[in-house]
Design brief:
Blueprint (H helix, E strand, L loop, with lengths): L7 E6 L3 H13 L4 E5 L5 H11 L4 E6 L2 E6 L9 E4 L3 H15 L8
Parallel strand pairs: 1-2, 1-3
Antiparallel strand pairs: 3-4, 4-5
Amino acid sequence: MISRRPSIFIYTHEADADFLREIRAGIEEENVASEVFEKDGQDVDELAYDAAADSMMGSGIGISGEDVAMQMRGRRSGENVSRLHMPTYAQCRIIGSNSARVIKKQSLRDL
């Protein structure tokens, strides 16, 4: 899935809506665009890997149920920048923020 505008891709499979909302808020706080796409039958590692590979910016997030992963293009599948099971809302916001901060070459926030 290739977009025409630079944005962080978020690939989901039966994602927790609150996690998604907080992740997008974290990205928005950094003034970066995001797009959400629902995918069938993939685990969180594959979702994050594919999102990063497809995003023009090279940053992607996968959400599968209650699992969240952040990935950058060039890393192998499963070697996520961050991966959490049942993160807090604050952690979700930080993952969103960090996905944008990597693109902007800024230091990451601690989870």
